[in-house]
Amino acid sequence: xxxxxxxxxxxHLRGSAEIIQRMEDTIAAMGRKDExxxxxxxxxxxxxxxxxxxxxxxxxxxxxxxxxxxxxxRKHIKEE
Length: 80
Hints:
Elements: E1 2-6, H1 9-13, H2 16-29, E2 37-41, E3 52-56, E4 59-64, H3 69-76
Parallel strand pairs: 1-2
Antiparallel strand pairs: 1-3, 3-4
């Protein structure tokens, strides 16, 4: 599985580097580094939103931030 985090200018200013780091730390803590890859992506076209855009297999999630990260991550990445 691949997860893409927008690293365009707008998302960068809204904390995409922190979201990527938190995502990588969470995946490592789950012991799933070999099956889930996190990569940066250029603009996903949601620049007017209040957070970072993240593309999971089932679509793009807008407005990801430190406050809603856990809820969004759990919803889209099932623990096995």
